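Lecture 7 notes: from sequence to structure.
We start with the chain below.
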Amino acid sequence: MQEVRAVVSKELDAVNAVIIEQLRSDVEMVENVGQYIVDAGGKRLRPVLVLLSSAALGSISELQIRFAAVVEFIHTATLLHDDVVDVSELRRGRPTANSAFGNASSVLVGDFLYTRAFQLMVTLGNHDVLKMMADTTNTIAAGEVLQLIRAGDSSTSEDQYYDVIDRKTAALFAAGCQGAALLAGADSGNVRDLNIYGRNVGIAFQIVDDLLDYQGDPEVTGKNVGDDLAEGKPTLPLIHVMREGSNAQATLVREAINAKDRERLPDIIQAVKDCGSLEYTREAAVSCRDKALGALKGFPESPAKKAMINLAALSLERSH
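Predicted structure tokens for the same chain:
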């Protein structure tokens, strides 16, 4: 990932400077919570995608740098809200903002970041980007509601699972890449291809994230194993067990999802392994990676394109 970031390191520093500048507020709590999130680090994956997409089209403008900050603000706002909804206590190896500052502060600062993102977006002066991000933010919110509705619902189908992750995760990846193209004045083919690339990298990223809930190391992932199960999330490994496993295995998983209970997590992890659900889930992520790579074929060779290819591969190989 360091090699990928190195391609746009100067511009990523500029994005971080915009983020810090835009977090300034005369309300102390906003700055405290905002700085807490910034200090937590994170991959800055979405801004990197914006910058790489821009570079793959020729160059990175000041508008695209500001747009990368917009995308990161929207992502961070969703994290603040997600951790409250999921009652999460750990993210990136340290207490979540809601654990450190309380639920009310996290929700309200998340609202601040959403609105700050749109204030910054208006300065881009691009109606198409503004409309796209308004639609994308609405899509993400709808995806979060769908995930909430389906928590504890073991009847969730694979198609419904993909619908949720496409809305709540992949939509922002796609919008970041597409927005970079719109700001560059790219032709419709490049706009479409970058949307396809970002969407499929986002889906692969989320599938692997769901996979890590059953085989990740908490010291590396920064979150507890089985958190998704405790929240009753019917992720792809579990859906596969319920469809392909024995009656006993399917019942075990179904009851755990319905009860939002990880008490029998070791047995469920064993069922996931025995049914080949880890391999099935990884193959699904590989398919998305391949679709992402296919979308890049029409772009000229460049350090940015090479980094985008490597980033798609890293979405599968990551351990956190």
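Points to note: The mean pLDDT is 90. The beta strands are 90-91, 94-95.
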